[in-house]
Amino acid sequence: MKAGLRQSMAWLHTWSGLLLGWLLLAMFVTGTSAYFREEISLWMAPELHHSQPSPDTPALAWAALNAKAPDAKSWDIQLPEARSPVVQLRWQPDTPQAEEGGRRRGEQAVMDAGTGELLSPRASRGGDFLYRFHFELYGVPRIWARWLICVATMFMLVAIVSGVITHKKIFKDFFTFRPGKGQRSWLDSHNATAVLALPFHFMITYSGLLIFMVMLMPWGMNAAYEDGWRGFFQDVFPREEPAAEGGAEMPMVDIAPLVARARDTFDQPVRRISVDWPNRDNAVIRVSTAKDPHITDQRRGGNPTLVFNGGTGELLETRPGDEAVPGAFRVYNLLVNLHLARFADPTVRWLFFLFGVGGTAMVATGMLLWVSKRTQQLRGKAPGAALRLVNGLNIASLTGLLGALAAYFAANRLLPVELAARESWEIRVFFLTWLLALGHALLRPGRRGWIEQLAAITVLWAALPLLNVATTDSHLFSATAWRTGALAGFDVVCLLMAATGGYALWRVVRKQPVRGRGPLPQGPRSQGPRSKRGARTAEDGA
Quick one: which of 528, 514, 535 has its CA closest to 182? Predict the structure, then answer.
């Protein structure tokens, strides 16, 4: 760190990227998959694939809750949308057990949107497991896991800034790729994947820290509010008080006219119906529609809503959902919504997904570059224990993690539907596969380890569409999958993963290991003259 600025930044870039690089790689992979977590969850619940919404869906949900929980304290109906073809029913029982320690979110069920039949999907955490793992890991106390994730994210932010400072010709180097040149090829790949989506990488890292600002820097809120950060959120997001308790039994109005009125008022499809004290004379019905996806004020709640008297159908209140949002809150919403892609349509989610793949490649190529450089410095000597360890961890964190993901999806189709704690067994398969890959990588941390694990993940990902054909009727060759494009898209992505793994395997097998290689060659003359000091900086910086 006593050298010049760029040399110091190169050292900082290398070690901030290496020390927690394996965790960052797992965060990028699972976070990238989370852009399609609802689609993943749907694929992992084949019992829901035949649900098709109809104009009678709200009435069917209304009848189902009247039959299932007529005396509940509250109802909540989530109607189908583009990413979920089923109806989610929730209710809070009006019982002493529910008040003393029952489930906070009450009971819930899933309903076929076309027939009104209550469905029993297989127990699975689906895409929510990958989403939660991205920022909470698994099996670790939540607060400690989030702190570790925040530390890794800060390391990532330092690596991005120091990398930009280190590579003074980073944009020129973006257009340079020298295949088959070992360390230089990894450097070129690292530069290209870093620069291609550099604004996205900075945004996703900084906004990730911003999401946890209450945990990282709570002092301002604690000083301004008597209840600390809890008082701040109560002030910003005040909770709506439920209707007064009590009331005599009284049948409610038909829901269909209320849904039609809300849809016509706001010119948006109805997404949610909630009821306080159903089937009482003080029942209150809230019918909420979808809202336009504004990136600066898109937040949970705030949807356009009509509030009705449950017994008479009289309109009590109109909430247009366009309340003014303070400027500071808009900036916060902008960054958080960019991170979570709440505003995004399918095209934008695919774009973010590809940027996430680029971020994964950026971290992976940086880790591989570190190993490649130190391997070439050995000049044919056997690698030491530290280098073997790093290379083994690289294998396990890249091919091992991808193999664990494929095993997680395969377990969803292979485990018995009636298996107790089935969702936990899916997650156990994920971690057991990953642990097996780690053990294999530490035992064979060299070229053979890469070849064997690349072959394994190629077979696993290629087998998933075939397994889907054998176990469900919503696969690439069925109309059901193409009617809900996410189901067919999942199988297509599996085939692309298999093709990518197969191509990487072919490249590794085809390239013969080089032993006793001399000093690294200089770059092509077309790149222009370069000082030794500048060359060392560029190589060290990645």
Answer: 514
Geometric angle at alpha carbon 341, from 338 and 346, rounded to 5°: 135
Burial class (CB in 10 A: 0-12, 13-18, 19+), 32: buried
Q: What gap in Å lies between CA 124 and CA 41, rounded to an integer?
A: 8
Residues 453 and 444: their CA atoms lie apart, in Å, by: 10
d(CA 85, CA 48): 8
Helix (H), strand (E) at residue 296: none
Residue type, 311: G
pLDDT tens digits, 294-316: 776 655 557 899 999 999 999 99
Q: Quote the CA–CA distance of 317 and 492 in Å, as a whole number.
A: 47
Relative to beta strand 315-319, strand 305-309 is antiparallel
pLDDT of residue 403: 97
- Determine the pLDDT at residue 234: 78
Residues 84-108 as b/e (b if ≥16 CB within 10 A, e otherwise) read: bbbbbbbbbbbeeebeeeeeeebee
Query: pTM higher than 0.85, yes or no?
Result: yes
Backbone angles phi, psi at 189, to 5 degrees: -65, -40
Query: Phi and psi for 227 in degrees, rounded to 5?
Result: -90, 15
* Cβ contact 308:295 at 8 Å: no
Tokens found for residue 410:
């395969």
| Helix segments in 197-250, DSSP class H | 198-211, 213-216, 219-224, 229-236
Reduced to 3 states (helix: H, G, I; strand: E, B; else coil), residue 48 is: helix
305-355 tens-digit pLDDT:
999 999 999 999 999 876 666 777 788 888 888 999 888 889 999 999 999
Mean pLDDT, the chain, integer: 85
CA atoms within 13 A of residue 72's CA, in its CB half-sphere: 22
Q: What 8-state DSSP symbol labels residue 514?
A: P
Place of tokens 């391997």: 375
Q: Where are the alpha helices (DSSP H) in 341-384?
A: 346-377
Listed in sequence order, the residues at least 6 apart from 32 whose beta carbon sits closer than 8 Å to its beta carbon are: 353, 356, 357, 359, 360
